[in-house]
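Agenda item 2: flavin-adenine dinucleotide complex prediction
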Amino acid sequence: MTLEMNIADQPANAVASLPDAQEVTEVQHYTDRLFRFRVTRPRSLRFRSGEFVMIGLLGDNGRPLLRAYSIASPSWDEELEFYSIKVPDGPLTSKLQHIKPGDQIILRPKPVGTLVHDALLPGKRIWFFATGTGIAPFASLLREPETYEKYEKVILAHTCRDVAELKYGEELVAKTLDDPLVGEEAQEKLLYYPTTTRETSDRMGRVTDNLRSGKIFKDLGLSPINAEYDRAMVCGSMGLNLDMKDILEGYGLREGANSEPAEYVIEKAFVGDGI
Ligand code: FAD
Ligand code: A2P
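Presented output:
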């Protein structure tokens, strides 16, 4: 039996009978490492833009195989969007990458997370720093009206290995600028700073290096980060998160949490060293 038959036949039917089943409505593949998909939204699910939930399929043993996923759609959207890695031997994503519209996935409707507006003190500029699939929570926050109500400038910095991996972010920014709800404000306030590290492009380099050298401020025409009015959210690999923590704390920003808001918040885009 091929892997595709596994997904199309066995888990889809088996998952459909579970209380937490949701139907896949759309799938788009970007590269052999990345894809996005949309699913129906449980009626009872309320979440704050930036939070994550557990989603998955049935494993070979018939038990739910769940992983944390940031919701990439805003809290007002009728459906839920996710942006996913494909790990070749990954227990979940080696199967999840084969889902098609009409298939069912498991979604536990218990959203949590630290990348939320409530975890930050008021400020003037909000910086979203992401690498790879770490852009997912910011895809939600970028289309959230509260983001533009709270800040005068919204800066999305996204670093990927190559140009093809930036496409999801490019489409997201184009959709945001054209959005009936936030488009007008985004046109005034949103700045987008995509960079690549392994393929030549218009903008290159790790965001951490561009911060340390000051290049990012020069390129965007902005003053350097200042703890008085700058707020930041970070989502990437463990390496990025640790480096960003160091950089932001060097500017005097303190790490916040839901229970104790401060100037920046951080969340792992995945557990592990990368692939
Ligand atoms: P796993 O056994 O989970 O992972 C195998 C290895 O693959 C890991 O050790 C790591 O080295 C690598 N890896 C896993 N996920 C990624 C990734 N996203 N990018 C690069 N390398 C990775 N993943 C998403 O694709 N989209 C999300 O929105 C997302 N949100 C997350 C939010 C949180 C809070 C956490 C903790 C993780 C999130 N993840 C996300 C990672 C996700 O939970 C799974 O690890 C991923 O789906 C791979 O599952 P797997 O079972 O195939 O492999
Ligand atoms: P690099 O190519 O120099 O490793 P990945 O796809 O492996 O998750 O990486 C996504 C992007 O994050 C890559 O461009 C990678 O750059 C970058 N990156 C990885 N680690 C760090 C880090 N510690 N600081 C800044 N950027 C990082």
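Discussion summary: The domain at 117-266 is CATH 3.40.50.80 (Rossmann fold).
Owner for follow-up: CH.
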